[in-house]
Design brief:
homodimer, 2 domains, five-stranded mixed sheet, 20% strand, metal-binding (chains A, B), manganese (chains A, B), DHHA2 (chains A, B), Mn-dep_inorganic_PyrPase (chains A, B)
């Protein structure tokens, strides 16, 4: 059996990196020859997590077809979020918790998606289905990924399955997940160490909506003023990036992970679609979105609907 | 929770109907309000199966949005194989064993695909994962679906998971699957009772390949001469249907389910792509394809590749 690479999306967050490591471990136990890699360097939060549990970061790759013919995807399926040469390899497995969009294959494959808060939750259950034990260190990483994706189980994407997985993983890893979770979220939101360009690309994903190229970034913080005070620089970085990469519309969502409110910055067009999507009025290309914390559940679907209306 | 309909593809075969019934049963046990329906009348084989196990056929529907807002799909995902108004409803769950093509959603969903011989095999394992017992009557139906899709475990699509599921279901249903399987396959191939038009539409599926509308039907038989002797009528029916529905290319694969050989009839263009796909030369728009029994594994992928080359 030829070797396959396992990886999450570009601009990887903690789940994109950890889910690749967890799924690779599971698949290796099931007899596959696999290596977890990443499509980018770990962010601050992920670096904290890997250091906390004493695990090395996966190797970073930009392309995959120079190494393998077959790959497994975690935490994404849309081609523009994947390796640059994803069209040149065969996707044999996907584990994801996003919408399916633009993902087409020539042959049948393994595809496992559930509308839960985190891919590491799905993989936790796949370990149980296959009666394979999760090592304590890996359980700590997976626990961190769920805390990250669900903002300590407070995001509206959180399901009972995420809550159950957190409890089970915390027990295996022997971690007090609430105190550890706050420490981890804070470690991931030290914005002063980041340039404006880093802020608007740190967790950015690309989407195609009604033919338009849409970029959506999310900045997690424990104090929205840390972002708002940098508004001019952030908008300039958004404009620079949009010109360079050809994005029609660029949204940056700054989210206070402790109180679950967001501030939205918008560059590009059509802005009226953004206003319609979030039932708001932009003032100086900015709007407050109280209660919005989930890009996947509270930003992408209404924006897609507004584009298609 | 609002009611959802569960259904397989148009021109339903035994798995399309049975998998919908099995998945609806499983989901009802998991708390969903569901009804299994079908996008067409049961074929001869399915009628034999339903009668054998004393189960009524599911209600036949053409559209779904007049009844529900949400649906669950089994044994297909490509929109052209689904309900005519599939774009007007939300797909919340899919269980399938085909390639993913043209299937896009606005929101995350449950998607479970595995490259095994039959969807009823996947659902058999989902019952186990959820620790829910399969009633004997339903086990008999699911066993029949696997025998049908894998031609009694002889199709190249057959996997160890299908073999294990057949054994488990045969035990629950208390059926000698080998003698029952031959009886069932023979019951499904009484071609004399069908018109030429029925033969070329009985198990037909539509595909889009390189922008062309491609229709592929499969006729199972226990004697290829029963099909070859009707060649003129079958080609006329293919031509009529292609003109009426606007298919660019129409393939009918007649398969001997007992010895695993097929005869291919071709109407429309591009015929050179068909010859390239199957490394054969058409003679009077016809070719023998020894060892070919699986549309999904031995017809669609090489044809798709040839179209894209």
């Amino acid at each position: 059996m030829s070797k396959e690479l396992v990886f999450g999306h570009k601009s990887p967050d903690t789940d994109a990196i950890v889910a690749a490591m967890a799924y690779a471990y599971l698949q290796s136990k099931l007899g596959y020859d696999v290596e977890a890699v990443a499509l980018g360097e770990p962010n601050m939060e992920t670096s904290f997590v890997l250091k906390h549990f004493g695990v090395a970061a996966p190797r970073v790759v930009k392309t995959v077809s120079n190494e393998v013919d077959k790959v497994m995807l975690v935490d994404h399926n849309e081609p523009q979020q994947s390796a640059d040469d994803i069209a040149d390899v065969t996707v044999t497995h996907v584990v994801d918790h996003h919408r399916i969009n633009g993902f087409n294959t020539a042959a049948p494959l393994y595809y496992r998606a559930e509308p839960v808060g985190c891919v590491s939750t799905i993989i936790t259950n796949m370990f149980a289905e296959n009666k394979i034990d999760i090592p304590a260190q890996l359980a700590g990483l997976m626990l961190s990924a769920i805390i990250s994706d669900t903002l300590l189980l407070k995001s509206p994407t959180t399901t009972d399955k995420d809550r159950e997985a957190v409890k089970a993983l915390a027990e295996i890893a022997d971690v007090d997940y609430e105190s550890y979770g706050i420490e981890m979220l804070k470690a991931g939101t030290n914005l002063s160490a980041k340039s404006d360009a880093e802020l608007v690309s740190g967790d950015a994903k690309s989407f195609t909506m009604a033919g338009k190229s849409v970029r959506i970034d999310q900045i997690n913080t424990v104090d929205l003023n840390d972002v708002i005070s940098r508004e001019d620089g952030i908008k300039k970085a958004m404009n620079d990036e949009a010109s360079e990469k050809g994005y029609d519309l660029f949204l940056v969502l700054a989210t206070n992970v402790l109180d679950s409110n967001s501030e939205l910055f918008v560059v590009g067009e059509p802005k009226d679609v953004v206003e319609k999507a979030f039932k708001t009025t932009l003032k100086d290309d900015r709007a407050s979105l109280p209660g919005v914390v989930s890009r996947k559940k509270q930003v992408v679907p209404p924006l897609q609907d507004a584009f298609e209306a």
